[in-house]
Amino acid sequence: MPRLPAPDYPADVRERLAADAQEVIARYPDSRSALLPLLHLVQAEEGHVTRTGLRFCAEVLGLTTAEVTAVATFYTMYRREPGGEYQVGVCTNTLCAVMGGDAIFEGLRRHLGIGNGDTTPDGKITLEHVECNAACDFAPVVMVNWEFFDNQTVESAKALVDDLRAGRGADPTRGAPLCTFRETSRILAGFPDPRPGAVEASGGAGPASLAGLRLAKGDSAGPARVGPPRGAPPSPGHRQQPGEHLSSHDAPQKTSASDPDHPAGPVTEEGEG
């Protein structure tokens, strides 16, 4: 059966959202560019992007609901179904997985009794795999409403979700203080965080992220060892031993040019003989 048109927001809600939407739209030379923050705005209203939210975005931007739906379903930060107050994303991409991300996800799945994308019966926690939290130097990483909890273990992750479910809260390893998913969505829509000190607490990159920058600026403190670029003379006083490479990135790689067992052959287009 064809679906009926989505219902509109109540008049007072629509009036409030329309005022917010005009503030967002005014930031862009082309109103269509405001679609992503507007989707966060309607997500902040009900905790997920509803059909009513899609209709609202389409109407204020002069788009079709199909155009808005195509964008909302492309980006994983937009929920299409109701979820928990705290979205707990466990990175299971390569480095985090090797460092324990897979074990953390499995431990939380069993501990919470839910699967990927599911929400606990109390409505507190939504658990999900995350492909990459862009924090490999702090692996394994868990994100709660897009705030970082670094260097996690199975036990620390269990304690984290237990604290959230019990209302005790939790402090991210770095970044702003934790807030609810709806509050986070409104901030992502481009509205200021009203909590005292939240903006100042956001801070910058952590020490592990800045190690390379410090070395590039000549700060040699710490145990990091980086080899010279290929072809550059070794550092004074260092006697390189046979087979030693100061950095794995400077070690010989088996490429088609250096590996006689795998010579480069002619490249053909798919389907050519």
UniProtKB/TrEMBL annotation:
Cofactor(s) required, per the database record: [2Fe-2S] cluster
Domain of life of the organism encoding this protein: Bacteria
GO molecular function: NADH dehydrogenase (quinone) (non-electrogenic) activity
Pfam families: 2Fe-2S_thioredx
Keyword field contains Cell inner membrane: no
SUPFAM superfamilies registered for this protein in UniProt: Thioredoxin-like
The protein's enzyme class: oxidoreductase
Region (Disordered): 216-273
This protein's UniProt keywords: 2Fe-2S, Iron, Iron-sulfur, Metal-binding, Oxidoreductase
The EC number(s) this enzyme carries: 1.6.5.9
Bias type Low complexity, positions: 216-229
Family: Belongs to the complex I 24 kDa subunit family.
Name of the molecule in the record: NADH-quinone oxidoreductase subunit NuoE
Gene name of the record: nuoE
